[in-house]
Design a protein that fits this description.
With 77 residues, the protein is mostly helical. The chain has a domain of 38 residues: Cytochrome C Oxidase, Chain I (Irregular), CATH 4.10.93.10.
Length: 77
């Protein structure tokens, strides 16, 4: 009597139905994290490099390292 009250479990197409749900969820989560990475890490990093090299003078940096004795090929004077 109690067996007739329980619905039969769905066996046919169960994997396909659950796979659609999980693939959609995985896609949305991955796109969300990619967007967060782009705007939270990549863009600020590119901006920091652009700001640094905007006023960077490599000859001034070379002369400072040369004066400090860091470079073996260019001894300090």
């Amino acid at each position: 009597m109690s067996a007739a009250l329980l619905p039969k479990p769905q066996m046919r197409g169960l994997l396909a139905r659950r796979m659609k749900f999980h693939l959609l969820g995985a896609f949305l989560v991955s796109m969300g994290y990619a967007t967060l990475y782009k705007f939270g890490i990549a863009e600020p990093r590119k901006q920091a490099y652009a700001d640094f090299y905007r006023n960077y003078d490599p000859m001034k940096d070379f002369e400072a390292m040369k004066a400090a004795g860091v470079l073996e090929s260019a001894p300090p004077k």
